[in-house]
Amino acid sequence: QVQLVESGGGLVQAGGSLRLSCAASGRTFSTYRMGWFRQAPGKERDFVAHIRWSADTTSYADFVKGRFTISRDNAKNTVYLQMNSLKPEDTAVYYCAHQSHPGGGFNSWGQGTQVTVSS
Under a CB-based contact definition with an 8 Å cutoff, are residues 108 and 4 in contact? Predict the structure, then answer.
C-alpha cells in the first residue's frame, strides 16, 4: 500500500501560479507512474497529467498543455505539478495518484488539495 499526501493548494488570482506537491510513502519501491487528477464541483474527476517513474515520459490533458508541468524527485518519492497561467476554470480539488505496475491503472489516491482561482 502507498500513502499519498498532497500540499500546495490555495487561492490565487487568474494568471497566477501554484506548485502542488505529492509525497509518497509506504511501498514506493514499486512505482510505475504517478499522476494528477482534478474534480470540480458537480463534475467528474478528470485526468490532468502523469509521469513515468523510470523514464522521463509525461502526458498532459489538452486543457493544461503549455501551462502545467509535471515533474518528479525519485529520491524524495515526490511528484510536483507546476501550474502557471491559472484560469478560474482550473478551480478544483486536485488529487495525486500512484500506479504500482503497468496495466490496471492508478491504484492509490491522495486526499486532495483545493485550488481556487479567482477572476
Answer: yes
Compute the residue count for the chain. Answer: 119
Owner of C-alpha cell 503497468? 102
- Note the pLDDT tens digit of each residue in 30-85: 889 999 999 999 999 999 999 998 887 999 999 999 999 999 999 999 999 999 99
Helices (H), the chain: none
E-only strand ranges, the chain: 2-7, 10-13, 18-26, 33-39, 45-52, 58-60, 68-73, 78-83, 92-99, 108-109, 113-118
Name every residue whose Cβ is closer than 8 Å to that of residue 17 and which is 6 or more positions away in sequence.
82, 83, 84, 85, 86
